[in-house]
Amino acid sequence: MWVRGNCSRRRYALNRTLTVRCEGARSKAARGDHGFSLVELLIVVAIVLVICSASLMAINSVLKSSRADYALQIALGQIRQVHQRAIDERRVYRLTFSTPGNIRTDRMDFSGGVWTPSFIDSINLPTDMQFTVVSGTPTTTTPNGFGSASNAIDLSVNNTSGATQMLFQADGRVLDSVNRVANGIVYLARPADLASSRAVTIFGSTGRVKGWKLFTSGSNKYWGQP
């Protein structure tokens, strides 16, 4: 009797232990099935939105800067191409810059004592960029010290103000419409976007061309190489 009763008590204790453990496991599983609370999900969504917003702003800024650089390369490329073409062909070529963003190339043919332009091609800046001087552009420290940023197109800045044409000679020089050696500067930017400001300078004595970008450091704005 004692052995049989003792065994019964042991079986009861074992069954009770197993029952408690199973109930505890079911309780933990039940708690785990609840997942995230609504507040936790909202916090996660808010964090993701903040990260996405910051990323989009950074990407947008990079894209705008790339477009401005592309516009600068268009202007630089056209000027360099025409300069080299005049030398190679021993001819005179004329570039005409016009707003909002067109560059026209003409070959100047001399016949009967008269220079006659023959259209070669025309190229436009990207649609969001144009020849313009944005408010806030430095007027005392200009690229190569050319002019005072009073005109977006100033192609004989050492002689007169606001000239829009340059004549590229066979000897590499650049002259204005009255045959004076002409230093020139052109500003291009996205309207009302100072950070997109770019510039091109042309040295009349050699035809050398340089590209510029406006940089900002605090309240200081200065021109440098892109």
Task: Give a verbal description of the structure.
The chain has 226 residues and is of the alpha+beta class. Helices cover 37% and strands 31% of the residues. The chain contains two helices and eleven strands. Strands 4, 5, 8, 9, 10 and 11 form a six-stranded antiparallel sheet that branches. A five-stranded antiparallel sheet has the order 3-2-1-6-7, covered by helices on one side.
Blueprint (SSEs and pairs):
Blueprint: H1 2-33, H2 38-89, E1 92-98, E2 102-111, E3 114-124, E4 130-131, E5 153-154, E6 165-168, E7 174-175, E8 184-190, E9 193-202, E10 209-217, E11 220-224
Antiparallel strand pairs: 1-2, 1-6, 2-3, 4-8, 5-8, 6-7, 8-9, 9-10, 10-11
Order of helices and strands: HHEEEEEEEEEEE
* Mean pLDDT reading: 87
For the biggest sheet, the summary is: 6 strands, antiparallel
**What structural class do helix, strand and pairing data support?**
alpha+beta
**For this entry, what is the oligomeric state of its chains?**
single chain
Hey, roughly how much beta strand do the residues contain? 25-35%
Shape type: elongated
For the termini, the CA-CA separation is 101 Å
Rg to the nearest angstrom?
37 Å
**Helical content, roughly?**
25-40%
Poorly predicted runs are 1-5, 28-32
Continuous helix count: 2
- SS elements, strand count: 11
